[in-house]
Please model this.
Amino acid sequence: MTPPIISVQDLNVGFSLRQGVVDVLHGISFDLHRGKTTCIVGESGSGKSVTARTILNMVPRPGVINGGRIEFTPKDGDTVCLTELDPRGKEIRAIRGGRIGMIFQEPMSSLSPVHTIGSQIIEAIRLHRDVSKKEAREMARDLLAQVEIPTPDKALDRYPFEFSGGMRQRAMIAMALSCRPDVLIADEPTTALDVTTQAEILDLMRNLQRDLGTAIMFITHDMGVVAEIADEVVVMEKGHVVEQGDVHQIFDTPRHPYTQKLLGAVKRLEEPAAAKVRPPADAGPILTVDDLHLHFEKREGFFQRVTDVTKAVDGVSFTLKQGEALGIVGESGSGKTTVGRCIARVYDPNAGLIDYRGRDLVKAGPEVLRDTRREVRMIFQDPFASLNPRMTVQQIIAEPLVVNGIAKGQELEDRVAHLLREVGLDPAMMERYPHAFSGGQRQRIVVARAIALEPKLVIADEPTSALDVSIRTQVLDLLLKLQAERGLSFIFISHDMAVIRYFCDRVAVMYQGRIVEIGETEQIITDPQHPYTKALLSSVPLPDPKLRGTRARHRYRPEVA
Model:
């Protein structure tokens, strides 16, 4: 094998705190090779992102490199020890972005909202290459075309907020590739994307790697993505490299218990949950949605004339049985979250019927809606964003009980303690604040708050998409337990077909505001009828590297479908 382009040797990184230095990376070692993809996998807190930033000598404060070496050997230069360079010096700044590119997880936090996409790529090019502004603009346009952004001439002059999530991620890739780097570090670049967009981004990175011979370090917690793109795999747990090797060896004969646990959690999601309790055959409907419409109008000018109408929900109809879990899947912008928020009356529909236990929520007044909201609760995608950071866990869970006058004093505290135990948390934690909990624990707190009023219907909007796969199964099993014990009905919104298969009895597939297919989950997954459903399922990465490239990718184009 050719010498590595980057060699990480016995690397130690710590964080200087008042009580001393706390180590977060413990003597990790691995290599990156030209034209190869090395996936760094592990749960949140394993040290993946700290490793990536250390390679760029960008350890976040108060982090310090307190041991080891990172050697970088560019294709046309001498070996440089990156850990010995001044983090603010000219030499490392020339390497960052120039020889080593970086794609971050959330493009909106990395792109300036007040500068056009073109100006940001042009700035990156001119910072590292001796070209005129006109030449840099032409190069930027070619880069946007290379990452398959439509009408690249116009896209150069658009702002990040005018792009979809997938388009922003493509723009980030274009910027990272603007100087044809020897190494590309991608930190969870597809986590927030739906499966079809994710598949396109992975294909794009694979093609660009083939053309440029770039070494890619791909950080992820999705073992399906690892099976799809990795040549080598490095498994990290709590700052240690616990296993590394060829992707086939890692998947076929994992040696470390932690690797076995990660792969076991993935395999569990390939089948319906063993603990799934199906609703009785004679169960009546708890919710009927008929011909639901919600349109968003864009108004411009002094007279606020309507210049554009987005049909977010365009004639959606379905029925949910008592005790049933209905999944709603589709790409970003398909309208699935909007449907959930219409049912919870966060949004006011333009037309249609939402019949919840004999009450039409579209026409309901404030008193009826107030009573209904005790029975219809929502669980949101990002647990940290939906928890007040200034309130303790006790205050957060108690709030709906206090607002509705259900409990106070010792009874209130006892109820909160019972709810915490019910979601698998220690009541001794109730005085802590949200920041003191992991992502999985925060989602359990959100679940405890959602069930505090003993609801009959729970609308779960991507409740596990931000979680590691092992935590994901824990949260899903918790929801299944609560469903069995309380007879809950669920509307489960997700873009993850494995999660839908594990949790849901039926699934509705949405595309551009409409349901294009609905039916039993297993029937839809094993024998999809609509071309869009086929495209969606063909984009799901399979957690088996032996199946890489064996499945035809379907693309749905309505104009030719």
